[in-house]
Amino acid sequence: MKAGARALGVAESFSDDDRSVLCGVVCRRDRVTDGFAFGSCAVGGTDATAAIADLWTTLDREDVRVLLVAGVAPAWFNVVDLSALHERVGRPVLSVSFEASPGLEPALREQFSGDALDRRLRTYRDLPPRRRVDVNDETVYVRAVGVDDAAAAEAVRAFTPSGGRPEPLRVARLAARAARRFRADGET
Questions:
Q1: Which residue segment(s) compose the domain that 84 sits in?
Q2: Span 116-135, pLDDT tens digits
Q3: Per its UniProt record, what InterPro entries does this chain match (predicted)?
Q4: Confidence check: pLDDT of 49 > 90
Q5: Total tally of structural domains belonging to the chain
Q6: Of the candidates 159, 167, 8, 154, which has an alpha carbon nearest to the alpha carbon of residue 91?
Q7: Is residue 166's pLDDT more than 70?
Q8: Does residue 106 form part of some domain?
Q9: Beta strands in 14-63 (DSSP E)
Q10: Where are the alpha helices (DSSP H) in the chain?
Q11: Distance separating alpha carbons of residues 176 and 182, to the nearest angstrom
């Protein structure tokens, strides 16, 4: 991947509010950040996929080659449909998580029931499997749509110059936290 290649990284931040702040960051492989967009999704809702797609549309960046999403269940189990997101943005979509996990199904069953559970389980079960990717001296777990596992691992490594968190996701997470704090302080 060329040094000027760009990724859109999307991360979120929420606390006691009913809305989670989403941040999308366009970042070049060489760590230059050249775009931000903010949005929100409902905590415990089902609108994260649409909200992430809206960030893509807002940024309107044809030069972005890949979409990186921090996890698949932002905002308290607002499960992201990676395939639908891929169809909407027309680029590879990679979900990156940072901890080993037995999966979300037990937690979903504990927190939801009826139609709310069924909808989340359908979306969750349709996700591609997580693949372990060693990055620098750390391990991340990647789900990929629109690209094979080897190319997904290459993209994650290309955008992770140090540590284990890809730069677009690291910056998006910091910006989402700052925006949430700003919003919580009354936007003064």
A1: 6-184
A2: 999 999 999 999 999 999 99
A3: Endo_dU
A4: yes
A5: 1
A6: 8
A7: yes
A8: yes
A9: 19-28, 33-42
A10: 48-59, 74-77, 82-89, 105-111, 114-125, 149-158, 167-184
A11: 10
